[in-house]
Design goal:
heterodimer, A: about 120 residues, mainly beta, 7-stranded mixed sheet, 4-stranded antiparallel sheet, about 55% strand, globular, B: about 120 residues, 12 strands, about 0% helix, about 50% strand
Chain lengths: ~120, ~120
């Protein structure tokens, strides 16, 4: 399995501000993903981050609101911009790792964001 | 459209009794199916997966799941529940249209409560 760390683990922010979440993996991976888990809800994919290229965003998510960086094969950041209380969620980073004939996906511990 | 349904918000089981957490899916091709568990204040942990082969898949912590193609189901089971199994369980399916990488579609989650 992959060891994935996220910083910060939690934060409380004021509306209108921005927060950058970091994701660090213990070894090089090709694909990194960012998910959002709103309170009491399931996980929704925000975007896929490939090293050296623009992130690919899912429907309903835009780069201006959730800019992503992927400077190398072990690190990525997600910024939640101009936050509102509706952005209060757990944000999870995940990576894809080859496991036998299929790639498995492993998740970080998440960043719990509360926007006041 | 691809989707995953977990019809129960919560499942209550007495310790020592068998447990079942239900999951049904709808995908256009052959499904890749997964179960993840989320403990409080922690990220998602992989439990098991079905890619191909035997319909009964064994995973971590004594859990197993049975793939039923005719019923499009992938229910999670355990013969004897433990209080420590209390957590949030997510069923997920790989989107077969996602190309070469592992875009997962998650169910809404089922909270399992095991009572002493």
């Amino acid at each position: 399995s992959a060891v994935i760390s996220q910083k910060p683990s939690r934060d409380i922010c004021q509306r209108g501000t921005s927060l950058t979440i970091q994701c660090q993996v213990d070894s090089q991976v090709t694909m990194m993903f960012w998910y959002r888990q709103q309170p009491g809800q399931s996980l929704t994919l925000i975007a896929t981050a490939n090293q050296g290229s623009e992130a690919t965003y899912e429907s309903g998510f835009v780069i201006d609101k959730f800019p992503i960086s992927r400077p190398n094969l072990t690190f990525s950041t997600l910024t939640v911009s101009n936050m509102s209380p509706e952005d209060s969620s757990i944000y999870l980073c995940s990576v894809e790792r080859i496991s036998g004939a299929y790639n498995e996906q492993f998740f970080g511990p998440g960043t719990r964001l509360t926007v006041l | 459209a691809q989707s995953v349904a977990q019809p129960e918000d919560q499942v209550n089981v007495a310790e020592g009794n068998p447990l079942t957490v239900k999951c049904t899916y709808s995908v256009s091709g052959n499904p890749y199916l997964f179960w993840y568990v989320q403990y409080p204040n922690r990220g998602l942990q992989f439990l098991l997966k079905y890619i191909t082969g035997d319909n009964l898949v064994k995973g971590s912590y004594g859990f197993e799941a049975e793939f039923n193609k005719s019923q499009t189901s992938f229910h999670l089971k355990k013969p004897s529940a433990l209080v420590s199994d209390s957590a949030l369980y997510f069923c997920a399916v790989r989107d077969p249209l996602s190309g070469g990488y592992n875009k997962l579609i998650f169910g809404a989650g089922t909270r399992l409560a095991v009572h002493p």
